[in-house]
Amino acid sequence: MPNVKAAYIWLDGCEPVSTLRAKTKILDNEINELSDIPDWGFDGSSTEQAEGKDSDCVLKPVKFVKDPLRGTPHILVMCEVLDAQGMRHPSNKRALLRKLAEDTASQEPWFGIEQEYTLFKEGRPLGWPEPHSGYPGPQGPYYCGIGAERVYGRKLIEEHLEACLQAGLTVSGINAEVMPGQWEYQIGPLGALEVSDEIWLSRWILERLGEKHGIAVSLEPKPITGDWNGAGAHTNFSTKEMREEGGMKAIEEAIEKLRVKHGEHIAAYGPNNDQRLTGLHETAPITEFRAGVSDRGASVRIPLATAQKRRGYLEDRRPAANMDPYKVCAKLLETVCN
To answer: How far apart, in Å, are the Cα atoms of 130 and each of 125, 126, 138, 216, 232?
Structure first.
């Protein structure tokens, strides 16, 4: 029997941003389906999910993929957190999304998430000068750039892309972003649970590769103050009706629903987002809601191809890079599909 190294991955109970945790279990059986992976316990008092006097919590496997770092036959296991009685833990937002996904399945919602992030080393973004010795050149040449004076961290980024593909994740692209040391990858289109699980797994892979290179990964919405772009997680969304002939009417109706619920969405779209959503640097002010065709300064952008075809998807540009995709997808389903 193989000794399978199974990295159990879950979200802790830290606020306002849950962080990833993981530990490895050695399994002596082949893994062909989810039921081959047992539940496992952990100390919730060390993850803000229980008190020391009653600290046991349960990891319930919900998805597994190939482990691209350890190789075959090893696996990464995404888990939901249950309490000691086997009930949903309050920190378990995935279970809430699972119910919404089931209730709205007939509308066939699709999501694509654009995950921006910033690479740091020794307290500053990659490619930035030593402290107190100035700044990089102004933004302009870095977005989708090429060359050692414009692009920083490509070795890590290419390793991350290859690792995600080896794991079977639905990566649809990568690019260097507007601020030096900043990058983006895209996951989707997928259903709500699938895209959210893959965002968390891809974040975990990125952090682990960052350890190898001595590089920290920041999901802060505004990692550097001043005249620099922030980091978001633009979320592309559609339903079957939006994608069909004449779907623009459904898109416009969805945008009006989002306008009414703007405050609720902002509350779920990641902490410190007010530092990013200022009305500058390709954002709309956090206190306003605006939609527009091909407008990257809007809260919700209608892509040009969608406007031309009169069907397709919308792009919600409000979520911050540090958002929890389980929460963001849930809010979109709640608002648009109910």
So the answer is: 10, 10, 16, 17, 26
Which 8-state DSSP code applies to residue 54? B
Query: In this structure, what is the dihedral angle of CA atoms 162, 164, 168, 170, given to the nearest 10 degrees?
Result: -110
- Buried b / exposed e across 139-151, counting CB within 10 Å, b at 16+? bebbbebeeeebb
What DSSP string describes 145-166? --STTT---HHHHHHHHHHHHH
In angstroms, what CA-CA distances link 55 with 58, 160, 185, 254?
10, 35, 37, 43
Fold for domain 102-337?
Answer: Creatine Kinase; Chain A, domain 2 (3.30.590)
| Residue 90 confidence (pLDDT) | 95
How far apart CA 332 and CA 31 sit, in angstroms, is 34
338, burial (CB in 10 Å: exposed 0-12, middle 13-18, buried 19+): exposed
Domain ranges of the chain: 4-91, 102-337
What pTM does this model have? 0.97
Burial-class residue 55 by CB neighbours within 10 Å (0-12, 13-18, 19+): middle
What integer pLDDT is reported at residue 1 of this predicted model?
Answer: 57
HEC-encoded secondary structure of 191-227: CHHHHHHHHHHHHHHHHHHHHHHCCEEECCCCCCCCC
Which three-class secondary structure state does DSSP give residue 102? helix
Positions in the chain short of pLDDT 70 = 1, 132
Q: Which of 223, 193, 219 is nearest to 19 (CA)?
A: 219
- Residue 277: the pLDDT is 98
Strand-pairing partners, residue 7, are: 24, 76
Strand partners, 121: 124
Topology of domain 4-91, CATH = Ubiquitin-like (UB roll) (3.10.20)
